[in-house]
Amino acid sequence: MQRYVLKRFGSLILSLFVASLVIFTVIEIAPGDPASFMLGINAQPETLAALRAELGLDQSKLQRYIAWVGGMLTGDFGTSYTYRTPVSEMVADRIGVSIPLALYALTLSITIAIPAGVYAAARRGTAPDLAVLGATQMGVAIPNFWFAMMLVLVFAIQWRVFPAGGFPGWGNGFAAGLKALTLPAIALALPQAAILTRVMRSALLDVLGEDYMRTARAKGLTARQTLWRHGLRNAMIPVLTIVGLQFSFLFAGTIIIEQVFYLPGLGRLIFQSISARDLIVVESVVMLVVFGVILINFIVDLAYAAVDPRLRDRT
Amino acid sequence: MSLLDIQNLTIRIHDKAVVEDVSLSVAPGEILAITGESGSGKSMTAFATMQLLPHGASLSGTIRLEGEDLTALPETALCARRGQAMGMVFQEPMTALNPVHTIGRQVAETIRLHTDATPAEARRQAIETLERVGLPPDRFPPERYPHELSGGQRQRVVIAMAIALRPKLLIADEPTTALDVTTQAQILKLLVRLTRADGMGMVLITHDLAVVAEHADRIAVMQHGKVVETDRTETLLRQMQHPYTRMLFEASTHQVDLPEIPRAEPLLVAENLTRSYLLPRRRLFEERARFTAVKDVSFSILKGERLGLVGESGCGKSTLTRALLGLEPLQEGRITLAGEEVRTDGRAMRDARRRLQVVFQDPFGSFNPRHRVSRLITEPLHLLDVQPTSEERASAVAEALKAVGLRPEDADRFIHEFSGGQRQRIAIARALILKPDLIIFDEAVSALDVSVRAQILDLLAALCRSHGLTYLFISHDLTVVRSVTDRVMVMRAGQIVEQGETEEVFTDPQHEYTKMLLQAAPRLPQRAELKGGPDAG
Amino acid sequence: MSRPLILGALLSAGFIMMALLSLVWTPYDHTLLDIPNKLQPPGGAHLLGTDHLGRDILSMVMIGARTSIAVALVALAVGLTFGVPLGLAAAARKGSWLDEVIMRGNDIIFAFPLLVMAILITAVFGPSAVNAIIAFGLFNIPVFARVTRGAALPLWEREFIMAARVAGKGASRISVEHILPNVLNLLIVQGTIQFALGIQVEAALSFVGLGVQPPTPSLGRMLADAQTLVTLAPHLAIVPGVAIILIVLGLNLLGDGLRDTLDPRLRRRPA
Questions:
Q1: Do the chains contact at B82 and A315, CB–CB below 8 Å?
Q2: Has residue A269 been placed in a domain?
Q3: What residues in A contact B87, CB-CB < 8 Å?
Q4: What pTM does this model have?
Q5: How large is the ipTM?
Q6: From the CA of B93, how many Å to the nearest CA of chain A?
Q7: Class of the CATH-defined domain B4-252
Q8: For residues B160 and B135, is the Cβ–Cβ distance under 8 A?
Q9: How far is it, in rounded angstroms, from Cα A26 to Cα A3?
């Protein structure tokens, strides 16, 4: 077990290192000098040089990489070229929207998908199963941002039960914040729930064919008891993989959904920074998102070992 | 009154009858064996008794357990009977246990399901039951997971789950087919002991006549879904009324007629072969241990000789085979074929490959399902320096197919159109097409029914006469090896522990391990030993 | 032939035909501005209505579908061209450094959510359809490498591959001759799934301005334009949205149907 965790942790560190190299290199090859971009075309050479020194642009690439990674590790994400404020402050404001939104959507997706998947699998081939399957086919095909627009049209404009956009901030009460995130979370969750339902259903159907399910029936368990006691935990192994993947989809998906609902999250920060060519913000926020994804994968790996004892002894 | 009484049982799967009008009964404390080849309906009969038939199956007739008709009971009542009044043991111990629950929990589940034992009480009983089946808690704590146990140990856990509540009836569906011969003997002994001790009735389903003859009180022989003959074991073995019974019995002890070995020079010489693997580290910074799969193995095969290699699973015979075929590098030793060294460093040594071919076990897995027979069996022609013309190919294909008893027209068919036995013939045709000096048969008849197996063994003998075949015959089945080899090697833990003339080794084994293997193997009584039988040819 | 398969094939074929037709004919010139007739509802002279500049929506959907399909197809081709050989090579040399490098490289690409990858590429090279293709193509490579490797690995343990090795065939020849044909079914199924995903990805990227740029119409861009007008003229959002859903639904049904038809485990086996 200890060895398994250490090995996974080693792979987490390696992935983070390579990802940081990739992001740094990509931003490096981006054309244009941030300093001249900030000062405009009429800048004096001396001012330009001074700004370059201030931003650390006069150092070697290696020094800058080390400074960037070292800064990230200590919570210093650099200073925005356009706003001249620390990136960490800008991120801290925004992350309070994006992460709750992703978690909200993930919770919705799981609470819809797991019961629906079990329900359909237990009734394989019957009308309810086919209905669930048909609904998931539709769900998978619907783009989340389009679904978001439709939700706004119905729930915010026609019925006025939810706000059409914007975010009051967590300072104005948890309920108000949650209400503002509800439509975005539903829009994000529905297509993912459709995928997860299909995975849950087929994982359970695969498990139903296993020999140990027959052994359980021979002990005297009913079909339903067999499904819950012996089927579910074994079926969770592929489901966990998808849950892990979904978190990264949802996390990235917030970037688009925030555009529809005018939410002040990381997504809007990224798009503002891209149009302002504020590459230090893009660089740091992208690294943060990638870090989140890699961390989730690590947690999913640990969850595997909790579910499947065979993995604990494997390397 | 009999414990289990099956009357006129017919099972249909999608309107096709797989079991027809079967009537059987088992008395308390009695062992009834149901035997027959694959597709005879013997397993279906077992599942019908448990009322666990697959979807799409329907049955008619009655199945009475202690006078109560199971076919008329509702599902809830059946659940109360399963595990309580009747238990079942399955063929494949590797997959019959839930991998994510401990063995103690799985045994205790049976107990808690049918009694109101507290968790602690159920656990205590589970430990007791595990001890009864030979898994004492000091060596096999109930916290173990199935993957930490061997196949034989897992089968003991399955048995413990089935007998925890001392059911009246135990159904064992090929309980030892997936196990090694020594493990098989232990498991069968355990099952018989439990049956006798608890006065339980047992239905033992097996394709192996020797197992049947040794342990069953009564035998039912099934063919194509029907019971063709049933009687007390001694009576049935002595009289064998039905021709199918006689055929099964003869096929099981089939002796082939091998020609003499032409006096000749050594063909293949293997000297001090050693193959070991690095094991993964169990702890960080620990030195990686080595596992030696083949250890200092030396032997030779004469031209025209038939050499056998026997051993249980994990003894290293597969690794040795792969090394001989040049599919696996050796750490030490050398192999010479007709005086030329066979390189085993993984490089394609065309010359050696041309002289050495192989027939594998699995008649379903040894062919690319997308190619026609002609393409499948000409694959080795790739090794020729000059590629034959299409006419030469066609005639080579026709010749090879005829040699193995198939028709030349079969060349244009796909592999799924053939039965298991026919596929093994095609595999032999593929091995023959280059007229190699040596063929390795790797468990080549192990997956076949006895009657088909007998035909393939006859084919081997015929090819020995017509083609002067030299082969290395690898098998776990001692009876088969005894029948088709001149000399035999016994392998254990990577080493050859004994080798010699086949008859000598079998009648007068020298090594302890060989003695144990021969002791453990179930044996069919020779017909002469069954006094008073009719003298059938 | 199952019903979903037929439905999926019809839907997919219908949209592909419509996209091809747009090369030679559309009901109206989609660049033609007709402000007096702006925001017409569906029906009448314009079958699916007009947008805020009076352009014919049906014509734009036809051309938009063509753009989306082209982007998804090229990205699919990129994924297949690089991913499949990598997967075959990794499976043939399982456990070697090559396998390790390929799989670790895959893990790294997987750590970048598709959208983040697109954002990075756009940040550097600016937004364009080509960059959307590069981003999704890059994303497709590890998908196909994994599917190919995963399907090839068990095949390498099969006896017919051993037989081919005994017949002296090398790893690359075996990969092409025996492995590839046997994983093809799976690749076709995965291909339709990635194709469908590509349609959605193109729409999403164009919606946020990272994909297809004006004046080329695309389904995602039509939705972006519709966002501010959706309360006035809901059909501006509904029509392109339904088009996306139908293409994706068709391709997914086709993929599922093909899987059921091609899966050898489901095929009838003679006794």
A1: no
A2: no
A3: 218
A4: 0.84
A5: 0.87
A6: 9
A7: alpha beta
A8: yes
A9: 35
